[in-house]
Structures are given as structure tokens and as C-alpha cells.
Amino acid sequence: MGSNAERLTKLHLQVFGLSDYIIKQIFKNLDAVSTKAGLKEYAIPDVITSVEVRLANPKIQAESRMKLQKVLTFLKEESNVISVDFLKGLSPDKKIEVLRSRIQELESEEQVMNDETSQILTQARKMVAGK
Hints:
The chain is built from five helices and three strands. The chain has helices at 10-14, 20-27, 44-56, 62-75, 92-129; strands spanning 7-8, 34-36, 39-43. The longest helix is centred in the last third of the chain and has 38 residues, at 92-129.
């Protein structure tokens, strides 16, 4: 993780879909280590401890428990993703060729998704205008 990796704000937890109530409960007894852009920053080890305390509460709803577990996995960097260099044995020219073709594939997929999104937005605008 980067230089700001040892701190996080409530916005980081909102990304995981946690409710404002749960976020307040997590930060309730924590002291902010700094303030950046008007947001209080908290030490990750403190947040991990607070999330573990929340998870120990048997009254936590299943959906909230899943979200909290995802936060904990992320904060502890226990992701099940393993970094593997599939291009390791290739020459630099071959690596560039493979990566360039992959970029082209992704750009094509992006264009299809953009088109589908535009169609959905157009339909939604028509539906709203029709009311």
C-alpha cells in the first residue's frame, strides 16, 4: 500500500457499502490521527480492531457482517488474489505485443459497455420524460 495506506477516512468505508450508522460505530471510540481535506483520518490498526469488535457482536445483520468482513480482509491485505507475472519468460518485444493486444481487447469491451450504458440511459430518460 502507498504512503497514505496507514490511514483511512469514513469515505473509505463508504466504498464498501457500510451504513453511516455502522461507520459511526466503528469510529466511535477511535481518535483521529490527522485531518486531511476536512476529513478525519484514523490509523488502520485501530480501525481493524474496531471492525473486529463489531464483528464479535452477535446482533450484527448478515449483510452488514459480510460487508464488515470484506473491509477487514481488505485492511489486513488478506485478499485471495495472488500476483503472478504471466509474461515473465517473454522477450520485451513479445511482452509489448501481448500487452498491446490485451489493451485493444479491453478497449473493444469498453466501447460495447459504453454503448450499452448509453442505450440504458436513453431508455431511462424516455421513461422519465413519459411520466
